[in-house]
Specification:
The protein has 137 residues and is mainly β. 12% of the residues lie in helices and 52% in strands. The chain has a 10-stranded antiparallel sheet with strand order 4-3-2-1-10-9-8-7-6-5. This is Fatty acid-binding protein-like 5.
Amino acid sequence: MEEFLGVKYVMVGSENFEDYLIFIGVGYIARKAALTLRPTHCLTLNENGTYTFSFNSRLVNSSVTFALGIEFDEVKPDGVKVKSVITIEGNKMIHIQREENGRTSKHIREFFHDKMIATTTAEGLDKIVKRYFEAVR
């Protein structure tokens, strides 16, 4: 995963993302705004061994700092509080988010030299969400 640290990836397309936003309860206006964004994602390794994953766009900027495999409290860009665990397996960052209502989402971000593909699934959602990112070097 080291070779992908510090690389910025900008979103260039998606499949079924609006369906996911509806499923998790994002309102109409916020959902339509989210669909216009082309966020940039970046994963970095901190001196203390933790990681920081940042999400930046023209409307919302957020980041989460975490230790691999250890549950932490996270506030998603839509303001919902979740319990999260992130692990890394090869070139994949696996991010599991559990809401207070028990709903669980799983985001697998697969890193490549020229792109990143984020695949999201959620219990009860009958679609697979894909978001496509290009590396900005």
